[in-house]
Amino acid sequence: MGKNLIQQRRGKGTIRFRAPSFRYIGEVKHRDYTAPERSGKVIGTVVSIEHSSGHYAPIIRVRYDDSQESIQIAPEGIRVGDAVEAGSEAGIASGNTLPLSKIPEGTLIYNIESLPGDGGKFVRTSGLAARVIAKSEKEVSIQLPSKKLRNFNPGCRATIGLVAGAGRTEKPLLKAGTNLFKKMARNKFWPQVKGQSMNAVAHPHGGSRSSKKNKPTIAKKYASAGGKVGHLRPRRTGRRKL
Fold first, then answer.
1. Which of 63, 72, 90, 219 has its CA 20 to 30 A from that of 194?
2. What is the phi/psi pair of residue 7, to 5°?
3. Which of 23, 33, 85, 87 is nearest to 54 (CA)?
4. What's residue 162's pLDDT?
5. Measured between alpha carbons, how far is 207 from 69 in angstroms, rounded to an integer?
6. For position 145, which CATH number holds?
7. Judgement on whether residues 163 and 215 belong to the same structural domain of the protein
8. In what order do the strands lie in the sheet with 83-87?
9. In-domain check, residue 68
10. What 3-state class would DSSP assign to 163?
11. How many angstroms separate the Cα of 137 from the Cα of each of 8, 23, 58, 76, 87?
12. Which of 126, 112, 105, 27 is nearest to 71 (CA)?
């Protein structure tokens, strides 16, 4: 008989396997693209440094002078009360957000937009940073943390600096229970075991009835009359087609 694997159950997207996004503090992205930011710059103040269970990096809450507030990824060395800038004329300093066309070559950046105005998609986890390699009128070449070069639209925004929280993976978990709660915070599938270790009802490779667990022991669907021996295939499953 067919088996409903755990991977297939998670793919349906039921409540049991959804991430608990109601615990997250909000959507972490660049501030909304406004006219003052395109023509000049706006200045904001770091109100608080917070922790979100849905993000590995620390989060800062910034309130700008045009009464707009945004939740952003914290750069290394940021403190409560520090001033950050956003706009085409913002200074080249850690925590400031500028278009890629205004960032000098060799600068470390993070939270890079894939398309202008989408809020940031690349280089967002703790301890990472990308580097601006080359610029032209049509595209900006950036080296990602994976050492891969990718070209971006010059109008895409990015934040200068290094994402805070480096060294997070160096702390040992010590026991499996710690890793369990770490995965539960984002509803990750853990622990993961191979199919041969499962029961026969949970995976086609499971069970100890046959020594060849990587192959089904039922007969082939179009086997000849003499070849239909052993654990025969069910004649019909599911709804009958008329």
1. 219
2. -65, -35
3. 23
4. 96
5. 56
6. 2.30.30.30
7. no
8. 69-73, 59-64, 41-50, 83-87, 97-99, 157-160, 108-110, 130-135, 140-143, 149-152
9. yes
10. strand
11. 46, 42, 34, 30, 19
12. 27
Q: How far apart (Å, rounded) are the C-alpha atoms in residues 234 and 5?
A: 19
Domain end marker among 169, 202, 226? 169
In a domain, 14, yes or no: no
The answer to whether the CB of 103 falls within 8 A of the CB of 109 is yes
| pLDDT for residue 231 | 66
pTM: 0.78
Q: What is the pLDDT of residue 192?
A: 86
Ramachandran angles phi, psi of 100, nearest 5°: -60, -30
pLDDT, tens digit only, all 242 positions of the chain? 577 887 787 778 788 788 888 889 999 999 988 878 888 899 999 999 999 998 999 999 999 998 899 999 999 999 999 999 999 999 999 999 999 999 999 999 999 999 999 999 999 999 999 999 999 999 999 999 999 999 999 999 999 999 999 999 899 999 999 999 998 888 888 888 888 888 877 887 777 765 565 566 677 777 777 776 666 665 555 566 65
Number of domains into which the chain is organized = 2
DSSP 8-66: HHHHTT-GGGS--GGGS-----PPP--HHHHHSEEEEEEEEEE--TT-SS-EEEEEETT
Report the helix count and the strand count for the chain, using DSSP H and E.
3, 10
Task: Look up tokens 């940031």; give the residue.
Answer: 120
CB 188 within 8 A of CB 148: no
- Residue 8 domain-assigned (yes or no): no
Residue 15 identity: I
Indicate whether 16 belongs to any domain.
no
